[in-house]
């Protein structure tokens, strides 16, 4: 393993951490509706649990309403039940084959709670990135110990990994600030 491999490996893993964090932020609902909110809701389909998006069309009717159109008529009731029992606080209503999911308006207290959830998710992402930095630095120190690189190369590697870490953490901070603004917007 070389210094370039260490940097490339750390960069790839940090990019995955940011993608994971973005996915986590999408699950935190705001006052506006978006189809991704229902991605985590699972419904039983012929004995196996599947996401709603794999058994129905999920789309927006307007800014506060999601429509779910099951591909099979028999799936309407199980989908409605799965949405109601999820921890999203949604109350779907059925109009024949179409299921409408109105997004309730968020109270000020609930908005503050959601900003705390966003900050905690951001801190978890920062911790994951710092752990990746530590792993990269440990690999560089191991190479130095095995006399495969010089002390200058090890120092340069540690500095490069630190710069990468700083860049990724500033990206996480930017995402947290944007999501907080979105949650607090009335």
Automatic annotation (TrEMBL):
Recorded GO CC terms: cytosol
Residues in Ribosome recycling factor domain copies: 21-184
Localization per Swiss-Prot or TrEMBL: Cytoplasm
Keywords per UniProt: Cytoplasm, Protein biosynthesis
CDD domains linked: RRF (cd00520)
InterPro entries: Ribosome_recyc_fac (IPR002661), Ribosome_recyc_fac_dom (IPR023584), RRF_sf (IPR036191)
Gene Ontology molecular function: ribosomal large subunit binding
One GO-annotated biological process of the protein: cytoplasmic translational termination
Transmembrane segments: none
Presence of keyword Zinc: no
NCBIfam families (alphabetical): frr
Function comment: Responsible for the release of ribosomes from messenger RNA at the termination of protein biosynthesis. May increase the efficiency of translation by recycling ribosomes from one round of translation to another.
Family, similarity comment: Belongs to the RRF family.
This protein's name: Ribosome-recycling factor
Lineage, uppermost ranks: Bacteria, Pseudomonadati, Pseudomonadota, Betaproteobacteria, Burkholderiales
